[in-house]
Amino acid sequence: SEFDNGDGTFDRFMTVDLSMDASGPEYEALLMYAWLMVVVWVIGMPLAIGALLYSKRREIEARNTRVGGPELKTLSHLFRPYGRNSWYLAVIDMARRLALTCVLLALDRSFQLPTALAIIIAFLIFHREHGGYWDASSDFFAFACGVLIKASIAGLIFTSASASFGTDHVTVSVLLILANMYIVGLFIYLVHKDSKKGEEKEEEAEEVEEEEEEEEEEEEVEVEVEEDNGPE
């Protein structure tokens, strides 16, 4: 943050801590530390997670459930939303989250919202064409959440440019609240739908098991009858 001294000079301070000058050795040390953390988190973490998932890709692709076997227990929280062959989406999703948060801070404020809108649109197009979640309902829900993020960013752009567009802040807020209510309702519906499907599958599995048991019992009875009627 800059403060005009009234004589043509400015004093610069850290926005998050106005007691600290935005110049000098302490500021330079903090700046170096910040760039180091950018390398560690923005670049290092996605690469590290990608390497871990790649090392277990065969087990992940061969799993029959979301979480997989005991050997995948420590990594299941990363890939369980995704399909067997789409484990790498965990890295792409992390890149999306980082791009919409800390990466934007490196840009000038006038470019942050347009850049965020471009990023979310690119990821929405990718997700629409690729999919990759464990089931269709998760694909649809993730896409709906992405659309909501895009609408929120567009709302912020319209709000910040209300003088030019004549946008009413209350109208934008109400629309975003309604969109959030729709997403919550959609989530509840999809959870209920999936739980109902799970119950139906369990019932079908029980019926199949009962039929198999009945067939086995009938075969055993037939064998016993044949043995009884056989030559003495």
Task: Explain briefly what this protein structure is.
The chain is an all-alpha fold and 232 residues long.
Describe this structure in words.
With 232 residues, the protein is mainly α. It is 70% helix and 3% strand. The chain is built from eight helices and two strands. Strands 1-2 form a two-stranded antiparallel sheet. It is elongated and about 115 Å long. The N and C termini lie far apart (105 Å).
What is the terminal-to-terminal distance? 105 Å
Shape: elongated
The SS-based structural class is mainly alpha
Oligomer state of the chains in this structure: single chain
Largest sheet: 2 strands, antiparallel
What's the overall average pLDDT, rounded? 80
Q: Spans of 5+ residues with little confidence (pLDDT < 50)?
A: none
Strand order of the largest sheet: 1-2
Compute the number of strand runs: 2
Number of helices: 8
Rounded Rg: 29 Å
Strand content: under 5%
Compressed to H and E, one letter per element, the order equals: EEHHHHHHHH
- Roughly what percent helix? over 70%
